[in-house]
Design brief:
single chain; alpha/beta; Metallo-beta-lactamase, Chain A; Oxidized Rhodanese, domain 1; 3 domains; 6-stranded mixed β-sheet; 5-stranded mixed β-sheet; 15 helices
Length: 473
């Protein structure tokens, strides 16, 4: 058997290539949208990709099933509960797919979504026990899939959590303890709340260490898995719907068209956005007025999806010819309207100083002194609710970054404002978003809440329920 796990860290995504060495037949499971890596590996291993299997309709990325099907002629398969507007070969519960000696067994495991499946891998058809299981978003390492993403589609979190409870216990925990576990996501994904940074585990290990798999009644399980989830990025509903439909294919080698400053400004005036993908420090030293800063380092596509609408034309600014990388990473979440790249922004700023702007990044002590001397200072905490357990700065407005675009009317655009997150990366995103919408004076806290605590400045720990309790300085 040929088994290859792919890790896309910027989206916390795992995907898989499984092939039979004897026959050369292979499948790809839960592929990312830029598929050249799977094609290259299949060629290197002498494999023919004959099927793409999706464990469910993904919400956090646009999958590469259509790209792989176009490149290889492979069939596309989901569980039989899935409905799409492109041809698929649905997979029934208990169905076995033979690649030769290697056999894949389909188990329906609804809960994260109604159509979710898991794939049990048998290295040899005659083996007494399976080799492993691909659990999709049903089971993660240390966690299980969140059941609350489909409230707008007529499903309640409690209903799906109940189905998840039975899927885990009737379909996955019935596998032998030695069965290897390979999930679709790892630490950092918004599809769960407590994922490990491990890339694989076993059923036995998860049975003993996964908080959601300890013995409990169904109602207790529902309460445990529905509480404390992060705010889902707003693009999730868009991506989940796009994965059901036919759409344009991605060429991951195509560079964005170069545009002039005047062309970029015309697009912005028409409702587009100038997305500056340089690191926050470079952005702060000089950028085109009105640009939004989402650095390519880290979770670029996810944070861009927090602050940009999918239908907005995008002009990217990137250092070192990284415009193609920015375009591909945006395409991974279905944001295909990259209208161009503004090249050599430093030269642009020299030529047009009237459009150049710097942004303020303040040390924790500076913010503390400003806050003490100015009662009108507006603080905005853009972390997720689960992060508040570490404490908050007293009086800060708590608006998670995925909600900031829709909730900025809760803030005073004329008040001096400081935005903070946990460590200082998201704060540049949030601060630039506010400035792009006309907020007069916005800075962000360098190092975020971690720097604030390290400077021994006062924090309060929110009580549940009741008022916040001061933890000292």
């Amino acid at each position: 058997m040929i088994f290859r796990q792919y890790q896309l860290s910027c989206l916390s995504l795992f995907s898989y290539l499984i092939g039979d060495e004897g026959t050369g037949r292979a499948v790809v499971v839960d592929p990312q949208r830029d598929v050249s890596g799977y094609l290259a590996d299949a060629q290197a291993f002498g494999l023919t990709i004959e099927r793409v299997i999706e464990t469910h309709f993904h919400a956090d990325f646009l999958s590469g099933h259509l790209e792989l099907a176009a490149a290889t002629g492979a069939a596309v398969s989901y569980g039989s509960a899935a409905q799409t507007d492109f041809p698929i070969e649905p997979l029934a519960n208990g169905e076995r797919l033979s690649l030769g000696d290697v056999v894949l067994e389909i188990r329906h495991t609804p809960g994260h979504t109604p159509e979710s499946i898991s794939i049990v891998v048998w290295e040899h058809a005659e083996d007494d026990e399976p080799w492993g299981v691909l659990t999709g978003d049903t089971m993660f390492i240390g966690d299980v899939g969140r059941p609350d993403l489909l409230s707008s589609a007529g499903w309640t979190a409690d209903d799906l959590a109940g189905r998840l409870y039975h899927s885990l216990r009737d379909q996955l925990l019935t596998l032998p303890d030695a069965t290897r576990v390979y999930p679709a996501h790892g630490a950092g994904s918004a599809c769960g709340k407590a994922m490990s940074d491990a890339v694989t585990s076993t059923i036995g290990e998860q049975r003993h260490t996964n908080y959601a798999l300890r013995p409990m009644a169904e109602d207790e399980f529902v309460a445990v898995v529905t509480e404390g989830q992060s705010v889902a990025p707003p693009y999730f509903a868009f991506a989940a719907d796009a994965n059901r439909h036919d759409h344009q294919l991605l060429d991951d080698s195509e560079a964005p068209q170069l545009v002039t400053l005047d062309g970029a400004l015309e697009l912005v005036d028409a409702g587009g956005v100038l997305l500056d993908a340089r690191p926050p420090a470079e952005f702060a030293s000089g950028h085109v007025r009105g640009a939004i800063n989402v650095g390519l380092e880290g979770r670029f596509a996810e944070y861009a999806g927090d602050v940009i609408h999918p239908d907005q034309p995008i002009v990217v600014v990137a250092d070192g010819g990284r415009g193609t990388e920015a375009r591909v990473r945006l395409a991974r979440i279905g944001f295909d309207r990259v209208a161009g790249e503004l090249e050599d922004v430093e030269r642009v700023l020299l030529d047009r100083p009237d459009l150049a702007e710097r942004s303020r990044r303040l040390a924790a002590t500076e913010v503390g002194e400003w806050r003490a001397s100015d009662g009108g200072l507006q603080l905005v905490d853009i972390r997720n609710p689960g992060e508040y357990e570490e404490g908050v700065i007293e009086g800060a407005a708590r608006i998670p970054l995925p909600q900031l675009l829709d909730r900025m009317d809760e803030l005073d655009p004329l008040a001096p404002t400081v935005v903070y997150c946990a460590s200082g990366h998201r704060s540049s995103v949030g601060a630039s978003l506010l400035r792009s919408h006309g907020f007069a004076s916005v800075a962000d806290l360098q190092g975020g809440f971690e720097a604030w605590r390290a400077a021994s400045l006062p924090v309060v720990v929110p009580a549940a329920p009741g008022p916040a309790v001061e933890s000292g300085s």
